[in-house]
Design goal:
Strand content: 5-15%
Largest sheet: 2 strands, antiparallel
Number of strands: 4
Shape: elongated
Structural class: mainly alpha
Distance between the termini: 54 Å
Helix content: 40-55%
């Protein structure tokens, strides 16, 4: 099913601002059809900068912490393993119910997290690494010494 998506905003005075082309494009696409209009607050998806820090700093440090704790893991192959571990530990998976009323829990995901949700998740990981792996995760922009 095709979908048209437009980004707009509501001004401080309550005026709705949307692209001028909406009426024309929707009119051409759905001529003669009933439509449903849904308004929702735009969710900001996490930035690529946060993503790079997570995969390039946090997970490698955590992986090394697990290796130092005696786990047989390798860099970079097991970065995904560590990512999966943290998702399972800190993120609650959504659940769905089938026609028989049975609940099924979906695997947790970080994909749809906003920047603030992802930063909270990373704080939990940093705390876990400090407490259970004796590993300090450098803050973004922090100078580190490589041996």
């Amino acid at each position: 099913m095709k979908q048209l998506t437009y980004i707009g905003r509501v001004t401080e005075s309550g005026d709705i601002q949307l692209p001028k082309r909406i009426r024309k494009e929707v009119g051409q696409w759905l001529r003669g059809k009933a439509i449903e209009v849904i308004f929702r607050r735009q969710k900001s998806i996490r930035s690529s900068q946060l993503n790079r820090y997570y995969w390039g700093v946090m997970l490698p440090y955590a992986l090394q912490g697990f290796i130092d704790a005696g786990n047989i893991l390798q860099y970079p192959q097991d970065l995904q393993t560590i990512h999966d571990f943290f998702k399972a530990r800190f993120i609650k998976g959504r659940s769905i119910v089938d026609a028989n009323g049975e609940e099924h829990v979906l695997p947790p995901t970080t994909t749809d997290m906003s920047n603030s949700e992802f930063m909270d998740y990373m704080a939990q990981i940093a705390q876990f690494c400090a407490e259970y792996l004796n590993t300090a995760i450098p803050e973004p922009g922090e100078q580190i010494e490589i041996f």
